Amino acid sequence: LAQKSAAHPLEETVKKLISSGLYPMPHVFENGAEPSVIINGKEYLLFASNNYLGLTHHPKVIAAAKDALDKYGTGTGASRLIAGTFEIHKILEAKIAKLKGNEDCVLFPSGYATNVGVISSFLSPLNLFGEKIAKSIVFSDEFNHASIIDGCRASNAEVVVYKHTDLKDLEEKLEKFMNADLRGLIVTDGIFSMDGDIAPLPGIAELAKKHHCTMMVDEAHSTGVLGVKGAGTVEHFNLKGQIELDMGTCSKALGANGGYIVTNKYLANYFRIAARSYMFSTSLNPVSTAAIIAGLDVVQEEPNLRARLIQNGDKLRSGLKRLGFNTLTSVTQIIPILFGSDSKAIAASKLFFEAGIIAPNVRWPAVPRNSSRIRLVVMSQHTPEQIDRLLNVSESVGKKLGII
Ligand code: PMP
């Protein structure tokens, strides 16, 4: 008789997570990323989308996407270097480079692919001829996005993690680990995705200069949001043209998907033949590409969208603070409510849902252990009444779970 084989160890972990209620079960929306979403025919208020300016449903963006669909069809059919470079990719790259104030831009299929491809190839111990070059070292904020962490890991370079936004710790680590034989990179999120605070870019840029390191900023959550023209945290701090590697995504305020790196023309050309996630992945969908081109125009034509986003963030954050919640260091459209334990954060999401609000919890590994939270995100389209409703529900959830 054949012996019954033991369950695979990975199957065991999944079963354990499901039975303990810790397995994440995303809601399934019957419409798009709008302030109100439909689940099983019922309407819920959504406070969790990175569609910050509502561009996924902007008439100009939709019209551009439909035109592109008619003209180019549904896909590109190849990676950029083979046969997947369309004129709209070049138009979009030029437009992003201009907004960001540097020479060139390279589009990737996603923000995740951008960080992994750019960071790993920048830090590579080999040049394009396969010859050894100076070793690299990367200094990375402890709360940087997972895609930055994965880029660092894929590079096999030495990774030094500094305390979150802590310039003193960064300086001490630069003094300890950086030297003239190394190629140094300092990398930080612009707006941090789970905390909603802003990196101290001027101080980091000064340290980068002093220690001869290249600097990289991830503007995923700040492009289209911060700065006079919506170019991001680099513009917010008047550092345009001074940050060598300006990375971002088109998946959030720009309302589509895709990622990019803006840099000088030599590094851009380097990434085009060294970043594996660029070379070996099909190029950005033409429909998305056209939507982003139109979305960038809307960002310039309708600065009121950015202003409303910031107002909405301020209203929600100040209301939560007044109620006694800990919103950590948030100053932007991303507003966490700290719950601490996984079980409380999960219970909070359920209570919000029962009250008709989508307010996801985020837990390790997205945030450090014991800092589980509800991550609220506002959009320009949320009305003051909708934010008031969220505040009322937050108060009752917070009281029920004993955190206020
Ligand atoms: N960087 C940051 C800071 C992010 O928050 C995200 C997305 N969550 C990414 C990169 C990855 O971008 P994408 O979703 O476009 O792959």
Care to describe what's here?
- It contains 14 helices and 13 strands.
- It has 404 residues and is of the alpha/beta class.
- The strands form 3 sheets. Strands 3-9-8-7-6-4-5 form a 7-stranded mixed beta sheet, sandwiched between helices.
- Helix 2 runs antiparallel to helix 11 (286-301), helix 3 (87-100) runs parallel beside helix 11 (286-301) and helix 12 (303-323) runs parallel beside helix 14 (384-400).
- The longest helix has 21 residues, at 303-323.
- The protein binds 4'-deoxy-4'-aminopyridoxal-5'-phosphate (PMP).
- Residues 110-112, 115, 145, 147, 189, 193, 218, 220-221, 249, 251, 257, 259 line the site of 4'-deoxy-4'-aminopyridoxal-5'-phosphate (PMP).
- 4'-deoxy-4'-aminopyridoxal-5'-phosphate (PMP) binds at residues 110-112, 115, 145, 147, 189, 193, 218, 220-221, 249, 251, 257, 259.
Mean pLDDT: 96
Backbone CA Rg = 22 Å
Q: Kindly state the percentage of residues in helix.
A: 40-55%
- Pairing-aware structural class of the strands and helices? alpha/beta
**How would you characterize the largest beta sheet?**
7 strands, mixed
Attribute tags:
404 residues; alpha/beta; 7-stranded mixed β-sheet; 3-stranded mixed β-sheet; 14 helices; 13 strands; 41% helix; binds 4'-deoxy-4'-aminopyridoxal-5'-phosphate
Quick overview:
The protein has 404 residues and is an alpha/beta fold.
Secondary-structure topology with pairs:
Elements (H helix, E strand, L loop, with lengths): L8 H11 L16 E4 L2 E5 L12 H14 L14 H14 L3 E5 L2 H12 L13 E6 L4 H10 L2 E5 L4 H11 L5 E7 L11 H10 L2 E6 L14 H4 L8 E5 L9 E5 L1 H10 L1 H4 L6 H16 L1 H21 L10 E7 L1 H13 L2 E2 L2 E2 L9 E6 L6 H17 L4
Parallel strand pairs: 2-11, 4-5, 4-6, 6-7, 7-8
Antiparallel strand pairs: 1-2, 3-9, 8-9, 10-13, 12-13
The structure holds 4'-deoxy-4'-aminopyridoxal-5'-phosphate (PMP).
